[in-house]
Design goal:
The protein is mainly α. It has one domain. Helix 2 runs antiparallel to helix 3 and helix 2 packs parallel to helix 5. It is globular, with a radius of gyration of 21 Å.
């Protein structure tokens, strides 16, 4: 219950910022429409709507990561969290309270991207399978947790001034190392590098399940394992970093209280 109340507060904080609507919802949809309308051709087939959409959907999560990092770091800077440390809330209450808003936003992002793709498909005579769309949306869940984990991690470790800069590195990596809007030839050194990071596998899983290609499904296990491994690792690190920050700040708050009490007694 405490985590839900905290999550409600965090949702309101994010929605209060107009930039969250622009970057988290409007920008990915605009990218999808513009990239397809401007760059798609039979020669540039990787800009086809069924190939482009999974890439834009995964890339959009990086903006949620940025807003999560800003939220956590600002709470830390304004001593909001320090005041909550004196409450009965546990570390997991805090983490869940930040994770729920992140999940709400990322689910909204991926649904908006695929609805837009379906509309484009209907307008251009390209039939996207509703089963494929549903599976593609579900397949993004590990990536959701990974990007939310990055946001909590960066917000815990860095100030509200430094967190956006660190987050921009991951945003750039998720754009250029995911193959979201570029051709990646399999079997090349570039493909091997891309496959070792979580971004390209996350996009590849979405493309495979969206296509409902039974032959391609043989490759989904390896890609999904990589994304899940990164998601577990990053989210676990975020919990550890937040817990250490909680212990550190709680010690400072307790020390300050003892000092004030001692001066009062004196």
């Amino acid at each position: 219950m405490k985590a839900i109340i905290f999550a409600t507060r965090n949702v309101k904080e994010i929605l209060r910022d107009p930039m969250s609507y622009i970057f988290c919802l409007v920008f990915p949809i605009v990218m999808l429409v513009v990239f397809y309308a401007v760059f798609y051709s039979p020669e540039a087939y990787w800009f086809a709507i069924d190939i482009l959409t999974p890439g834009i959907a995964i890339f959009s999560f990086s903006f949620t990561m940025l807003f999560m990092a800003l939220l956590v770091s600002k709470d830390k800077t304004t001593a909001f969290l320090s005041r909550l440390y004196t409450s009965p809330m546990t570390t997991m209450d805090f983490v869940i309270g930040y994770t729920i808003p992140g999940l709400i936003i990322t689910i909204g992002q991926v649904v908006a991207c695929y609805i837009t793709a379906a509309i484009i498909g209907l307008a251009t005579g390209i039939q996207l399978s509703y089963i494929g769309i549903t599976l593609a949306i579900i397949s993004t869940i590990p990536a959701m947790f990974m990007f939310i984990g990055f946001g909590i991690l960066f917000g815990s470790l860095f100030s509200d001034q430094a967190a956006p800069g660190i987050s921009s590195i991951v945003i750039t990596m998720s754009g250029f190392l995911s193959g979201a809007w570029m051709l990646v030839n399999p079997g090349t050194a570039l493909s091997a590098i891309f496959s070792a990071l979580p971004f390209y596998p996350a996009v590849s899983v979405g493309r495979i399940v969206l296509s409902l290609n039974e032959t391609a499904f043989a490759n989904i296990g390896g890609y999904l394992a990589i994304v899940c491994a990164y998601a577990v690792a990053v989210f676990s690190l975020s919990v550890v970093a937040f817990r250490k920050k909680t212990v550190s700040d709680s010690a400072i708050v307790s020390m300050h209280k003892r000092r004030v009490q001692k001066n009062g007694d004196a």
